[in-house]
C-alpha cells in the first residue's frame, strides 16, 4: 500500500547515520517539534549521527531546508556532546537498500533498545518513519492530556534548547510582534493571541445541532473575551490567514484585531510566499502565540499543546481556555476561571523538563 507523504515523517538509518525528514500537517496546525525530538532520542540511544532534517509541507512543492526556518549553528552546537549532527547525508546513502521501520509518537529509550536497535544492527540501513495519520494524532492528543506524562530528557533538550529561528525569520517575527505592541498603546504594549482559524472551527462545529462547550464560532470567542474582562481597545492577534467575513462580528467587539496579513511588510510577505506556502505562516503563528502576553486556544490540538510548552519554558503561563471553568457555581466570570488545566494542574509534559 502506498503511503501518503502528508502523513509520514521519514528518516534513514544507514550504517551509523540517521536522516530525518520533517512534515508539517496542515489540517492540524502541526509543527515539527515532536518529530525532531523523536529523531534526537533515537539517534542518541542508537549512537547514530543525525542529518539535518528537511521540512515538508502538505504539497510536494512545499519543501524547505532546515536552515530556511531554523538556526543550523544553534541546532548543531546545542546537541554537541549528545548527538552528532551533520548537514548532509553521505553520498553512499542513496545507493543502499533500505528497510522501513515505524516508531511511536513519543519514542522512548526502551522502545529504541528493544524494537529499533536489533533491526539496526541486523540490517544496517533503516528508514525511520513517524506516522502522523489522523488516528495516530488523535491517540497522541489523548496521551499528552494525561497528567504526569514525562518527556525523555534528550527530547527536552531538542525542544527547548536547539530549535531557534534563523536570523532573518526571527527578525521578521520580532518586527511583527513589535508592531502589535505599538498598536497596543492603551494596554501598555500588551496583546492577546487567539488561535482562531475559521475553517478549523467550522469543521469542528459542523453537524452539531446542539453546540458543545468545545465548539465556538468567532463571535462567541469575542463574547467570551469580553465576558472575562477584556476591554474594547484590547489588541488581538488571530492566526487566521487573511480576513474572513465571519470575523466581522469579532472585530465589532474588538476593533483592534489583526491577522498576519495586516502586520507583515509587503516585501516580506512576497519573500516568504505566504500566499503560496503554509509552512512560514505556521512558524509565524507559533512564535507570536508563544510570545503574546496572553494565549487563547479555540481548539484542543497539538498546536495548543506545543505553544503552551514554549510558554511554560519562558514563564508566560497566561493561557485561557474557553472550554474550562474552575467552578460551575462561580457567581461571576473572570479570566482566572478559565486558566488552562495544563497550567492550573501543571499537567503539561513540559513541566517534567524543568523539575
UniProtKB/TrEMBL annotation:
<keyword id="KW-0812">Transmembrane</keyword>
<keyword id="KW-0808">Transferase</keyword>
<keyword id="KW-0119">Carbohydrate metabolism</keyword>
<feature type="transmembrane region" description="Helical">
    <location>
        <begin position="32"/>
        <end position="55"/>
    </location>
</feature>
<keyword id="KW-0472">Membrane</keyword>
<comment type="similarity">
    <text>Belongs to the glycosyltransferase GT106 family.</text>
</comment>
<dbReference type="InterPro" id="IPR024709">
    <property type="entry name" value="FucosylTrfase_pln"/>
</dbReference>
<keyword id="KW-0294">Fucose metabolism</keyword>
<keyword id="KW-0328">Glycosyltransferase</keyword>
<dbReference type="Pfam" id="PF10250">
    <property type="entry name" value="O-FucT"/>
</dbReference>
<dbReference type="InterPro" id="IPR019378">
    <property type="entry name" value="GDP-Fuc_O-FucTrfase"/>
</dbReference>
<keyword id="KW-1133">Transmembrane helix</keyword>
<protein>
    <recommendedName>
        <fullName>O-fucosyltransferase family protein</fullName>
    </recommendedName>
</protein>
Amino acid at each position: 500500500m502506498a503511503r501518503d507523504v502528508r502523513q509520514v515523517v521519514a528518516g534513514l538509518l544507514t550504517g551509523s547515520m540517521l536522516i530525518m525528514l520533517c512534515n508539517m500537517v496542515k489540517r492540524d496546525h502541526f509543527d515539527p517539534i515532536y518529530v525532531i525530538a523523536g529523531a534526537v532520542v533515537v539517534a542518541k540511544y542508537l549512537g547514530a549521527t543525525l542529518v539535518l532534517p528537511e521540512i515538508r509541507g502538505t504539497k510536494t512543492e512545499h519543501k524547505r531546508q532546515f536552515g530556511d526556518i531554523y538556526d543550523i549553528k544553534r541546532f548543531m552546537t546545542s546537541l554537541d556532546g549528545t548527538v552528532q549532527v551533520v548537514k548532509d547525508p553521505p553520498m553512499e546513502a542513496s545507493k543502499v537498500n533500505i528497510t522501513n521501520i515505524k516508531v511511536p509518537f513519543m519514542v522512548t529509550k526502551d522502545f529504541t533498545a528493544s524494537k529499533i536497535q536489533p533491526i539496526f544492527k541486523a540490517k544496517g540501513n533503516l528508514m525511520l518513519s513517524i506516522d502522523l495519520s489522523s488516528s495516530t494524532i488523535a491517540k497522541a492528543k489523548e496521551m499528552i492530556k494525561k497528567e504526569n506524562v514525562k518527556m525523555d530528557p534528550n527530547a527536552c533538550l531538542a525542544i527547548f534548547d536547539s530549535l531557534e529561528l534563523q536570523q532573518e525569520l526571527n527578525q521578521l517575527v520580532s518586527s511583527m510582534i513589535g508592531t502589535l505592541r505599538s498598536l497596543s498603546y492603551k494596554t501598555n504594549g500588551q496583546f492577546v493571541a487567539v488561535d482562531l482559524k475559521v475553517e478549523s472551527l467550522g469543521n469542528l462545529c459542523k453537524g452539531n445541532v446542539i453546540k458543545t462547550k468545545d465548539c465556538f464560532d468567532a463571535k462567541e470567542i469575542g463574547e467570551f473575551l469580553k465576558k472575562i474582562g477584556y476591554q474594547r481597545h484590547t489588541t488581538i492577534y488571530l492566526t487566521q490567514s487573511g480576513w474572513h467575513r465571519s470575523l466581522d462580528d469579532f472585530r465589532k467587539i474588538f476593533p483592534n484585531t489583526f491577522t498576519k496579513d495586516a502586520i507583515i511588510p509587503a516585501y516580506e510577505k512576497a519573500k516568504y510566499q505566504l500566499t503560496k506556502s503554509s509552512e512560514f505562516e505556521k512558524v509565524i503563528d507559533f512564535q507570536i502565540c508563544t510570545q503574546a502576553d496572553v494565549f487563547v486556544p479555540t481548539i484542543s490540538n497539538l498546536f495548543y499543546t506545543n505553544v503552551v510548552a514554549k510558554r511554560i519554558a519562558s514563564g508566560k503561563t497566561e493561557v485561557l481556555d474557553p472550554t474550562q471553568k474552575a467552578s460551575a457555581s462561580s457567581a461571576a466570570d473572570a479570566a482566572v476561571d478559565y486558566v488552562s488545566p495544563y497550567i492550573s494542574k501543571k499537567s503539561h509534559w513540559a513541566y517534567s523538563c524543568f523539575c
